[in-house]
Design goal:
The chain has 403 residues and is α/β, with parallel strands linked by helices. The chain is built from 13 helices and 14 strands.
Length: 403
């Protein structure tokens, strides 16, 4: 252990993929460090090809490594949309050239994510982690049924962004107390849970492996809990921001705008209950960078999305683990093991070294992501990632804390 610079392994017997050979951690001054398995995020947006002014595979994967992640899954709302072997090849070429950690692409469910006809799922299946039209809900029940039947035949997961367009009514934040008090148009909770309800029925009928992206409402938690009890092959994720913030934290600032929106206190409490009882299987950041200009237009007109890879663990550790709301073991399960199990993502010799007792404030100027927009800017947190290592190679080293 001395060769690991007094770093304490975190409960290694519980994590079969966690392996850190002697001598592979870079030389740091003596201190109290903890080694966690590398985290895995099944929901990120790296914006290439098509929108590299927001983020690139290079900057996004570097940001992930800084956050202690050693694998991520990139959503397909790109240009071109990866909806065929040919369009997927463009994204895969960039990943092969620029990624500093493994980046697993999603294939689109429908051509161009337009919901009109199925993408060439069969041709993409060998090279994608799963299928999703993230950013858009599949509006047609018959289209989603066909997609599930095809995914089932291919042994692939359908990962759904659940949003019923007919229930949006031009909303852009939660249809709750803040929206009413400040004259904003609201997004109803039903627009999320109603499509989840439909998809759970289809997943039960087709036997498809189904994953629900970024759930945010208490009704969504209840529906998924009941479906699991019935034996439906369903998993789900939520994001750090839905667990530690709610509509009471909203400000007239684009850094508080994302989709789904921050919901009510009751919704947040239901999500926390879902983490503890196993209804919610994993935490994913939905890292969604935009340019500063796109996020400077207030709540109504700013683009939807915030960055999250570089703040996820510190925020969750500070706000949930340290106060005793969530056990540390459960947090690591949600960030590291559960995503890999569900999406069959392999792990090699990969881990991150953390200084858990170091306090600091979230400063977007320090981010490696091109995106700087986070509702956590200025928040005091604990837990600094000192280094991230994969297969014996240091993919991130924090010079500020490792000198």
């Amino acid at each position: 252990m001395q060769e690991l610079v007094q770093a304490a392994f975190f409960n290694p017997k519980s994590y079969s993929h966690f392996y850190a050979p002697k001598g592979t951690i870079p030389a740091f001054p003596n201190g109290k460090y903890t080694v966690f398995p590398g985290f895995c995020d099944v929901h990120v947006h790296f914006r290439e090809p098509g929108f590299s002014y927001k983020e690139t595979v290079a900057t996004g994967s570097a940001a992930a490594a800084r956050g202690g992640y050693t694998a991520v899954c990139a959503m397909p709302n790109l240009d071109p949309v990866p909806d065929s072997a040919e369009t997927l090849a463009a994204e895969r070429a960039i990943i092969g050239r620029d990624a500093v950690i493994p980046v697993y692409p999603y294939g689109a469910i429908t051509a161009g994510e337009r919901g009109e006809r199925l993408a060439d799922m069969e041709a993409m299946a060998p090279d994608v982690i799963a299928f999703s039209d993230d950013g858009r809900g599949v509006q047609s029940e018959s289209m989603m049924r066909a997609a599930m039947e095809k995914a089932k035949s291919l042994g692939k997961i359908i990962a759904a962004h659940c949003e019923e367009n007919s229930l949006l009514h031009g909303g852009y934040i939660h249809a709750g107390a803040y929206a009413a008090a400040h004259g904003h148009r609201g997004i109803s909770s039903e627009s999320e849970w109603r499509q989840i309800e439909r998809d759970l029925r289809l997943a039960k009928e087709t036997g498809c492996a189904y994953h629900v992206c970024h759930i945010s409402t208490k009704e969504s938690v209840a529906l998924i809990r009941a479906a699991k009890a019935e034996g439906v092959d369903v998993t789900c994720e939520t994001g750090p921001h839905y667990l530690v913030l709610d509509e009471g934290d909203l400000r007239e600032d684009g850094r508080f705008k994302m989709n789904p929106p921050l919901r009510s206190k009751e919704d947040r409490e239901a999500l926390l209950e879902g983490l503890l009882d196993g209804t919610i299987d994993m935490i994913a950041t939905d890292h969604a960078p935009h340019s500063a200009e796109e996020k400077s237009r207030g709540l109504e007109k700013s683009a939807m999305g915030i960055v999250g890879l570089e703040t996820a663990f510190p925020v969750l550790y500070t706000k949930l683990v340290r106060p005793g709301i969530l056990p540390l073991e459960r947090l690591i399960e949600l960030l590291a093991d559960a995503p890999r199990r569900r999406f069959c993502i392999p792990a090699g010799e990969e881990y991150a070294v953390w200084e858990l007792d170091r306090p600091y404030r979230v400063d977007p100027a320090d981010f490696l992501s091109k995106g700087r927009t986070t509702p956590f800017a200025g928040m005091g947190v604990y837990g600094a990632c000192v280094a991230t290592v994969r297969n014996g190679q240091t993919v991130f080293q924090n010079e500020k804390y490792s000198r």
